[in-house]
Amino acid sequence: MRTVCKCHGLSGSCALKTCWKKMPTFREVGNRLKAQFDGAIRVIISNDGKNIMPEGKTIKPPSEYDLVYSDNSPNFCKRNRKVGSLGTQDRECDPNSEGVGGCDLLCCNRGYTTREVLVRENCKCRFIWCCDVQCEICESTKVVHRCL
């Protein structure tokens, strides 16, 4: 939460000031969570079973504000029924994107295939009074990239 204030008065003078708490934007919250995630510390339970300590000796002990984890995330690149992951094999990707839909990231650096496919879809649809829609079938070729 952050404090936001507004001045009231003649010609913008601050004769009366009203302040309130305001939630951060969704983007700000997301950025902070991502930063916490990127700096997360792997921990193990100490011998007394009451405390946690960092897995590596060179890592500082976590504070109450640090994000910690005890198990590694599952590998979502490969099919794993136990965790409900279908894997990314044969998923469509975008080779021009560096985001999560990009071929490098989505295909887990396994590579991808590129093919031209014939796409048939409804087009030039029009509404016929009452209660009918008539469409033509249009064909086009589309370049599709799929993860190996």
TrEMBL record:
Any GO CC annotation of this UniProt entry: extracellular space
Lyase in keyword set: no
Record's function text: Ligand for members of the frizzled family of seven transmembrane receptors.
Name the UniProt record assigns to this protein: Protein Wnt
SMART domains: WNT1
Organism listed in the record: Elysia marginata
Family designation: Belongs to the Wnt family.
Gene3D superfamilies for the chain: 3.30.2460.20
Pfam families reported for this sequence: wnt
GO molecular function: cytokine activity; frizzled binding
InterPro entries xref list: Wnt, Wnt_C, Wnt_CS
Compartments where found: Secreted, Extracellular space, Extracellular matrix
One GO term (biological process): neuron differentiation
Keyword match Amino-acid biosynthesis: no
Keywords, alphabetical: Developmental protein, Disulfide bond, Extracellular matrix, Glycoprotein, Lipoprotein, Secreted, Wnt signaling pathway
